[in-house]
Amino acid sequence: MHNRRSFLLGTSAAAAALGLAACGGEGAGSTGPDTEAEPSDQTVGVAMPTETYERWVADGANIKKGLEDKGYKVDMQYAQDDIPTQQQQIDQMINSGVSALLIASIDGASLSAQLDNAASQGIPVIAYDRLLTDSENVDFYVTFDNYKVGVNQANALLYGLGLLDAEFEPADDAPENPLNVELFAGSLDDNNAHLFWKGALETLQPYFDEGTLVVPSKQVDIEQAATQRWEQETAQKRMENLLTTHYNGGEELAGVLAPADPLSRGIINAMQNAGLGPTLEEGLPVVTGQDAEIASIKLIADGIQSSTIFKDTRDLAEQAIVSAESILKGEEPEANDTETYDNGVKVVPSYLLEVTMVLEGNYEKILVESGYYTEEQVESGQL
Prior knowledge:
TAT_signal, Bact_Solute-Bind_Prot2, 12 helices, signal, 12 strands, Peripla_BP_I
């Protein structure tokens, strides 16, 4: 297989035309923010899901610093992936009189009571990277183009398998097929997991239809592939089971669609423990990823993990702050998508940011030269 090609590649999600009208910056039934208040008189409540994921720690730090630099007070809480804790934290923020809420939910459907309460108090709500569902009281959504994340992950898998060339066209020197692959999805209570899956599977479907790719486990539904809470250990255990059940008779596993880096590392651990690899050049199956976590960037640099998707949380935090500031001033935040994100009750106006595919051939330019990581951090795999 052609797993270790080096070239400079950056595939980005195409942003829709800017300036589309967004819905008003007030929750249903709200009286709206105090547009006369100075930033120093306003507190933004920031609810984050967990500190066990590297990216959420970075998101929180970027948001807190950005808001404080603009003069706002910040009440930021991490719920350690416990839904009742996040509910209580948001209730406390509302009771303390925050001027706005910025919420990265654990379960997007679990906060309806809190959103109703916020609306009754005139507190606007911005969903951060995870859509808040089943409620009309969501004013805005800032995220990445999550469907395109899935498309990029599928293309990264196809490229790593040698089926696509550097231009993402069918490769002239494609390997003999069919090729065996397995599919992993994220947590079903995270709306993003469904969009990642949809983007990836719609991209891969023609290869399944023509028999180029085969899933020996036949676990091709998101419910079968889901990984609750995006846990690395859960992904590792499932991969171990797949290898034991479906690859003990000489069948060769060519690649795995993995939607996030912790899952990728669990999958890689399982494969290496089973004697595969230990590197791509030495026969390790291709494994995708997401979030460009430092431990996975080291694996990419070392020729172990094939790819990841970089979502620059610095930009996401900045956009969230811009949107929050607009709402707090009584203005409509700028949206570039007013059609995609239906939360079950309303289409939430959204701002989507670009994503970039990271491979061994471009991680230095994308992540090191941009200042996101240092060479020393990549070399050690630690921040």
